[in-house]
DNA sequence: TCTCGCATGTAATGTGTTACATGATTTA
DNA sequence: TAAATCATGTAACACATTACATGCGAGA
């Protein structure tokens, strides 16, 4: 439902071909919306049919294998503008790692540590990438209103990653304390 | 992919009928994995075919409209145990609100305030619910290892909601400062 | 010419959402 | 007995993921 608008937002900032869009989604746009190139091509075609974007005219006939540049049309800008103020309910939560930890708690399975450690590592990588973007694009600059808002969106990603990493650390601490229990508790198990 | 295991985890904690499961997903399980009753029925049938769960025998023939209680089988426990230690990559981010704020930044549309305010309100509600569960089930209790892990999962939800709410506040502050700009900047706009 | 990388796409499958259907039990 | 509620489902659709297909241009 939102991919359509994520693409319109991306094209508002800059016209692009399908693959360029896919790359932008892999990089900067990915910290708030991810999409594969297959999704993007399909959605671009729909947006073109709906008259919200158009292909910029190029020399030569447009064929398979030739890059096609898309730009947003006024109708697309209007649709995006209207959507931005919608009061939609947030997407329901689906966090596989939380399921794992809860299941491991029920099963008494200390092996989850591997899953949590992995998750922590991936999120630490993502955090570094965000912090690098922040340094490169926003830190030590005089930002206008748009720049400050863009930075806030990046900051949301950074906040989420930090929260996640801290939580992983708390779980790992708890797991390790269970493996080396104190003297009071657990004098007779397994 | 994970719904299957979320159901197995739920049935590990307690055998349930389809609708009871749907209710548990609406309440406590919902803070880490959400699912509709239609999904749950479909998945329970698959799990039964795969031999991971079974229906508890009941007096009378099992027919449409009659409650069917499901319990996890040893094969189900094994499958869950194995999955818990999988080092899967986290799900890609898809946050519509971030797209909205970023799009609004590009469009210069202060109307996003409505969307952000709404999102903040919903997340504040969810946070209250989590905090109530924490008070009811975990606070002022002597928790065993399983209890402490269960609480940590709830804490993850609480942390996420708090982070989100703070971020919404930061965005709202920025939006309002743009509507009432200081004297230095913006002496000639619109 | 053969391979590689770029660019655009198709097809199949899986997962989630929405709307509706069916039957049993309770209660006004 | 009629309506509401509980409980289990079916069907159609939308969206996402994975694997693969097609065509072009550059360079070995």
TrEMBL record, chains A, B:
<feature type="domain" description="Transcription regulator PadR N-terminal">
    <location>
        <begin position="7"/>
        <end position="80"/>
    </location>
</feature>
<dbReference type="Pfam" id="PF03551">
    <property type="entry name" value="PadR"/>
</dbReference>
<dbReference type="InterPro" id="IPR036388">
    <property type="entry name" value="WH-like_DNA-bd_sf"/>
</dbReference>
<dbReference type="InterPro" id="IPR036390">
    <property type="entry name" value="WH_DNA-bd_sf"/>
</dbReference>
<feature type="domain" description="Transcription regulator PadR C-terminal">
    <location>
        <begin position="93"/>
        <end position="176"/>
    </location>
</feature>
<protein>
    <submittedName>
        <fullName>PadR family transcriptional regulator</fullName>
    </submittedName>
</protein>
<dbReference type="InterPro" id="IPR018309">
    <property type="entry name" value="Tscrpt_reg_PadR_C"/>
</dbReference>
<dbReference type="Pfam" id="PF10400">
    <property type="entry name" value="Vir_act_alpha_C"/>
</dbReference>
<dbReference type="InterPro" id="IPR005149">
    <property type="entry name" value="Tscrpt_reg_PadR_N"/>
</dbReference>
